[in-house]
Design brief:
It comes from Rhodococcus triatomae. This is YdbS-like PH domain-containing protein. The protein is α+β, with helices and mostly antiparallel strands. The protein is built from five helices and six strands; from the N terminus they run H-H-H-E-E-E-E-H-E-E-H. It has two domains: 55 residues; 80 residues, PH-domain like (Roll). Helix 1 packs antiparallel against helix 2 and helix 1 packs antiparallel against helix 3. The protein is elongated.
């Protein structure tokens, strides 16, 4: 009896927009800014010894700097996406990485989302909702034109598919 051949899954081919790094850096900075402000305010109030505030401030600055300066480049190296006539493929994450494949026959809706920072950078996120308990598949930080073309292409492919999306 022979063993089944190993199945290899190629990584998705396309990256998000290069401006994704700026998006992720700005979002990280906006996360850490309130933390630093709270530490400064607590320092001014002065309930605890000065070393507590200094330590908290130092940890926040180091963690925030790494989050702003390193994580966006790491995420950009990891994030990939691709669509074919049969499926949507994504790879995302930075510390924990996730690979998702959504068969076109399971696609229920395709949406585009643009937050204020996305709009400032001309980026968009495409969300492909499927009949899956794992939730929607997101393709983040695409150039707005690429997102629009992706939505149109997915809509076209799904329209030709005989699946029931359940």
């Amino acid at each position: 009896m022979s063993t089944p051949a190993a199945v290899t899954m190629a990584d998705p081919a396309w990256r998000p927009s290069p401006r994704a790094k700026a998006l992720w850096a700005i979002n990280a900075a906006l996360f850490w800014l309130p933390v630093v402000i709270v530490i400064v305010v607590l320092t001014a109030i002065g309930w605890w010894p000065a070393w507590v505030y200094f330590t908290a401030f130092a940890v926040a600055v180091v963690a925030g700097t790494v989050h702003v300066a390193v994580v966006p480049f790491w995420r950009y190296r990891v994030h990939r996406w691709e669509i074919s006539d049969t499926a949507v493929y994504t790879r995302s994450g930075w510390l924990t990485q996730e690979r998702r494949i959504a068969p076109i026959s399971r696609v229920q809706t395709v949406d585009t989302e643009r937050g204020p920072i996305d709009r400032m950078l001309s980026l968009a996120t495409v969300t492909v909702t499927t009949a899956s308990s794992a939730g929607a598949v997101q393709i983040t930080a695409l150039d707005q034109q690429v997102a629009d073309l992706t939505v149109a292409r997915l809509t076209e492919i799904a329209g030709h598919n005989a699946g029931d999306a359940t």
